[in-house]
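Margin note from the TA: students keep mixing up input and output lines. Inputs are the sequences; the output is the structure of the whole complex. Example:
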Amino acid sequence: MTSTGRIAWWSSGVFVGLGLTALILWMLLGRSVATTGFAAIDLRPLDESAVYHRGRLKSFDSYAREIVAQVAGPKGVSRVLDDAAEPTRLPADFAYLDMMIRPELYDDADIIYVKKKPMRAQLAAALERAGTVDTETLDAFIDTGLISESLLRSPASLEMLQIWSRDVVRTASHVNAIRAAMHFRSSETLATSLRIIPPPDGDRDTPWLSPADLWTDGSGALTEGQRLAAGMDPEMRDALQRSWAAFVEAWRAEDTDRAAAMLATFCTAIHEAAPELYPERSRLLTESTYFRAGSFTWSWIIYLFAVLFLLMAVAFKWEGARMLGLGMFSVAFLLHTGTIAVRWYVSGRWPNSNMFEAVTTSVWFGAVVAVALELVARRTALRNLFAIGASVACMAAMMSVQFIPKLDPAINNMMPILHDLWLYIHTNTIIASYALIAMAAVTSILYLLRRLFGAPADFARVGGTGMLLQDGKRTVSLGEVLDGATLIMMELSFVMLWAGIIMGAVWADHSWGRPWGWDPKEVFALNTFLVFLILIHVRLRVADKGLWTAVLAVAGCGVMLFNWIVINFVIAGLHSYA
Amino acid sequence: MAFAAPLKALRTLFSSVRFGVTLLTILFVYATIGSSGIPYPTTLNPFGPWGFSQVRTLPAFELTEFEWFHTWFFLVLCALIAANIIVATLTRIRLSVVNLGVWMIHTGIITLIVGSVIYFGTKVEGDAPVFRRAVVINVEGAGAALLPALPGRSAAVETNAGPYLCTVVETAPELPSGEPGYAVSVAVQTPTGGRFVRRLVDGQPQLTADALPGGGPVPVGIVDPGFTLALQPLVQEDFWIKESRALAFRSAETAESWNHVSLDGLPRFNDYYAQPEDVWPLTSSELDGVVRPIDMPVAVPEQLADLDIRITGFLRYAVEQSRRVPGGHRIDPVALVELSGPQGAPSRHRLAALRPQERTAGGALEFRYVESMDALEAMQLQADPSLTLSVEGSDPVTLSLAEPGTALTDVGAGWQARVHEFIPQLTLPNGALSLVVLHLRTPEGTDITRWVFEDASINRDISGSPDGPGHGAINARGESRELDTRLTSTFRAGFAFPLMLVGGPDDVGLRLLSPGPDGINSAPIQVGQGVTFTGGAGLRVIEFSLTAREEIRPFIVPPRQRDRNSDIGGSFSMIRVELASGGWSATHWLPFHRYSFDDPRLAVPGLGRAEPTLLALPDGRRVEMIFTRERRPLPAPVILDDFILTSHVGGFTGDVSSIRDWTSVLRFESGDGWTMPKSISTNAPVAFAGLSYFQSFWDAPRPPSQMDFGTPGMNFTGLGVGNRNGVVTQLAGGTLAVIGMLYAFYVKPVIKRRRRERVLADIEAKKAIGMQAETRQEVLA
């Protein structure tokens, strides 16, 4: 293929990728949430407003999403609007304000989330025995996990909660989550925790105030917030009181225009209450947009298309497919990079301090390495395989953060122990090695699939780096190429994993007072390394080097995933935040 | 040579890559089993739930993670790997530029192993709470006392006129002005009965102020000028070894420092007791219920050399519980019953008729006691709850409890009454009680709210009508008044459960009552007798006694009810200690103490307990004994100058996520007195006199509770303490291995490629000048 043809194909890939991106964004931003009637009220002023929550100033949208998720889980809050037959899912910001201002509308709405399916079944059985609810409602509850507070307060439900709370290991934490959901859904809690007004004294250590603090109940005893509000400039307090009261009144009356206007007035006033403390509006707006766009996790679809085209390029040596695949990989990578950069900007720190961030950043490192290796190997037979490995790893990671609720995208403060330079050195090195291990497993699986269909026992005779140094003129089999690609990524991950373990020991030494404590996370990082150590030495002795390398690379990936998933979520340890 | 062949075989073995791979595989399997355990499917469906068998915690092992990785097997395995690396490197890998990488890797690993031998062989790791201040109480001419600055702690100084009693009522980590500072308020009761509160500010004696308990200035004459209070640092001289266990003794008379005896080899994860009667009967199917005795002799301290001390029991997570068992002379009916459903295993319940929290079983049965035949007959007549009001000179009036009354009705002698609310089986912390909230109006026209219980002795009158704020609710805060005895109220709760077991009066025995369509069925039931009901449910009385006595035994908490952190830390573990001397012997269950403070007042919530067991020896000595951790002296005593909490924006809200860091400002005792302040915080330790000190835990704020004064916290800091021998060697080895890997993977291929290119170029050059060249294969070989 001529260079003009290559550029044309590559450009097509980029354009198709961009088209897919636009389609996905359109789907995301216009997804099936209520956007008509009163629920379509203009809440944009809140997108640029900060709310104090757990030691961080978040955009209101980001805050509302967290609270609504605590109440209603991943499915969000739905309610029957106007004369509609079916409940409509409400945007988180609208749901928050509506539950706060008109709680009575939600008393019988199915908005409290029960996560565990066996608990749903038990509760449904108890409610059925009590005869307080029809079968259809109970079936819907078992299916969605959502139940109304009025049903949860029935004697049969309270008895079940009481029984579950005694089982500290299996069900008590879920009962606490249900009770927390009921607590957070209450109008009073929503009102008092909406700390949206900066402290009038302008001190960064003074608590932020909620609109509820602007009024006193006349009993004489003031809360800290009310005391602080009492010290506010009377003119400012009066303006805030008037605009908030008018907003609430208009909301109750479903007067869309007036409610929006009063909200805008209120938001303008809070921005002016302590401008020196107020976060940048652009940062808040970016945060709202970031979450509204679903953290761009749907970019896995573009990675998926990239994988399909690149596989075709490898299998059929079709240059057009290679260009299309690389084009889409480039778009997905740029989108991925943008997501990481936006999160970095919004949170004010490099995103690698919780599981959501570790997973998405890990595969981003993999993609960066893949880009570099694709450039180095562009004239060798190894080309395309690094992009395939990275695309599969990125796709799997992004699907997991989209579909596994435990990988919470909320941005919160880091634990004090994580405020250290070694977080960036040790953690990034380790998670980058994990991405490379996953990528090596991808090429290994391709190798094993080939062998499964009768391909000969080829292997990279000059080693991984040796193949990279070749000029590409020598004809090599696909088996040799796959084995070589596996070796390159395995060797890189081997060095990085070991270096990461040593760096972790340095950090642990000055943080916990010992470099190594046989913590399960440490042991399984060592175990992952041991698998690759065995791989290197087995390769020295066996005849079928390609097969053993592939099998052990997949096993190493399994141990790595065990470390990341089972050790983190099932077995308690010092690294429970990572 | 006779040894040549075996030596050669050994050399062959240790230079074998296969042997190395085998050792690494064994290490992998060993580490996996020790760390995560063995996962297995809990059902035949492999996609169903999986369980984990934590092998190292089985009775055959009883090892912590640290211990699992320090067994003889693990140490031998590491030694074999080290030998394999050394022999294989020396015999198989020529030291050359090409092989420099692998030499560095192997040398690095050996260096790391040497560093680890030094590190783990000399490792000392523990923790120490350091308290901020103590209050020095000084009374001129009488004496002095030290009082830890912890809310609720007290001390007394005796004088000729009587004692000065001092109690710390409040500590404040910052001054009311918001400025940094540490203030302690002490409530003082003088020998003459005068009371005042003295507020002390650390480092600023000029701010000391006295006030009356409710506020306001102290009248002249209450405060004796000879009485002084001052704050001073509380020196910490010891630390406690991580994961260790020890038995500590001291004289109860002198209460001097504890004498610790290490308990190496004590189990950690399973329950051990000699006979079932040593603990309360197991109620959970999750417990194995295996009687598993241990007998571990304890090295007796010098002061108790005449005693034989043995550990004969260990419980991983248990609490001491007092229960009633048949016996004694006090009327306190108890019964042991077995309930069985149509399906499932029968469940046993120990019931006490006079204890609301212990008189129901399985939501099906209630156990009651009646004092008279009249009461028994009344019980047999009425299944529904009833309330009868009696006023002297009038006939008793029965009020309906079916629904609340809307208006007051006359009940005689000018009294009016109305049932405001009937609450059946109200759940309370110590059981469930039925209650009627009654609105009474006296002949004088006064409104009263009366709470009427079945046990009339706990009835309560509250001023005002129940329609007033909060009066209808059980947690009402209305003003109590003396019970008006002119009107008596008798409430019978009726049948709250399908079955009622009634004991008494006296030796009449037991009757089983159950409401049916034709009234209440009543039949006597004997001990050992079983009754089967329609549907297959059954009841059997196993034991019954009209009188009972208290007995204390450990209760093994079912695993599902255990707090995970407490379980990991062994906070609720117990040991059974048997002491013998001559013909005398004693047995005690001892709960675990995280710290063996010499001053028990330091054992605040969060730092464990101070519940020493008093031992009266046959020779008259009284000795205190606790189950705790090993305590060692710090190389340099330490004091806490200041504790600083740094928060994120918005200040500290009580939520941990609002905390940015904790900083302890410490001083150590050196030969020249106390050092200059040294700050430690997260990720920023300090080293002093051979040990490193880390910020480990802190005194978090606690709201007041029934058990505790509550505190704004920051009255102590928790330091991690440990040594770091060999760490530099370990890290040097690890780093050398990294460099070796980079060389082996990325430098070596380049060197080999260049050599190959040079050889090929030589061949081409030779060909060009017509020389006979070796074949390409020969050259490359």
